[in-house]
Amino acid sequence: MDPDVGDRRRQTERLIARAQSARRRAEERQIDAAESRQRLEQREVETRRRLERQWAAAARFGAPRGAGPATVVPPAPPGPAPTPAEAAAPAKAAPATPDPAATAPATPDPAEPDPSAPDPAAPDPADPEELGAMMDAGLRVALALTGADMGNVQLLDRATGALTIVADRGFQQPFLDFFAVVVDDDGSVCGRALSAGAAIAVRDVEQDAQLAGTPASRVLLEAGVRAVCSTPLLDRYGAPLGMLSVHRRGTHEWTHADHLLLGLLSRHLAGLLDP
Fold it and tell me: How far apart are CA 13 and CA 41, in angstroms?
C-alpha cells in the first residue's frame, strides 16, 4: 500500500473521530443546558414557597396591606311568577313611609372597628426601635433566602438625600463607620442603586469597573465581602425610601431568583414604611 494513502486514511479517521467527539460534546452540553434550566425553574418555585413560609413566620412584619378576599354575594332566589292579570295591571306605587333608621342619627356599633383608626397590631414606623426591628426581620429573611453571609438595611433621609444604616448583620465597626452615611454619587454599590432607582449587583468587588480601587472597595474587601447586591426600597410612586443590601464572602453570579426574592422583599419593606 502506498504510504501516502495510508497516512491520508489515518488522518481521515482522526478527523472523523474528532467530529464524532465534538458532536457528542455538543449533545452533552445541550442536555446539561436543559437540565440546568429545569433546576433553575425548580429553584425559583422552591424559593417562592420558602419566601411565603418565611413571611408567614415573620410575625414582626404584621399582616400584609391590601384588601382581603372578595366576597361573592349569591343572587336572591326568584319569587313566584305573576299571573297574566297581574302582569297586565299597571304597577301601583307603594305608599311612602318614613324610615326611622334613615332619620335617626347614626350610632357607632362598639363591636364594629373604625376603619379610619390605626391598627393597634400594625408596626409603628415612627418608633425607632420598632422600625429597626422590622427592618432587621426583613434582613434576616433576605439572608436566609439568598444564602448571603452579611447584609444591611438603610433608610433615606429626605432632608439630606443620604442613606443611613438602621439594621445590619455580620459587619464589624469599621464597615459600619465607613457606610454610616451614603449618598448617590459616592461610587458605592448602594449609592449607585440609589442613583439608578434600580438594583445593582456586583459579582466581584475586585473586578468591578466602577468599584475596583476605590475606598469603598477597600472597606468591603477588609470586611470579607466579594459580591454585593443592593435593591432600593421604593414607594408607590417610585421614589426611594431606603436600600436593602446583601453581601457574600465569595464571588457570586447573582441569579434571576436572587433578584426576584430581593425585589419582593424590598417591596414588602417599602410597604411597611409607606402603608
Answer: 42
CATH code reported for the domain at 128-273: 3.30.450.40
Which residues make beta-bridge pairs with 151?
169, 246
Residue 108 has pLDDT above 90, yes or no: no
Q: Sketch the domain layout of the chain as residue ranges.
A: 1-55, 128-273
147 burial level (CB within 10 Å; 0-12, 13-18, 19+)? exposed
**What pLDDT score was predicted for residue 121?**
43
Task: Give the integer Cα–Cα distance in Å for 60 and 165.
Answer: 19
Q: Residue 85's pLDDT is what?
A: 53
β-strand partners of 227: 248
pLDDT-based confidence at residue 48 (cuts at 50, 70, 90): low
Maximum CA extent, the chain: 122
Cell numbers representing residue 39 in the block? 433546576
Ranges assigned E (strand) in 61-190: 150-157, 162-169, 181-182
pLDDT for the residue numbered 194? 94
- Identify the three-state secondary structure at position 225: coil
Q: What is the pLDDT, as a whole number, of residue 230? A: 97
Backbone angle region of 89, left / alpha / beta, with phi > 0 → left and psi within -120 to 50 → alpha: beta
197: left (phi over 0), alpha (psi -120 to 50) or beta: left
Please name every residue paired with 247 in a beta bridge, in sequence order, or none if there are none. 150, 228
Residue 268: in which H helix or E strand, if any?
A: helix 256-273
Q: How far apart are CA 211 and CA 252, in angstroms?
A: 16
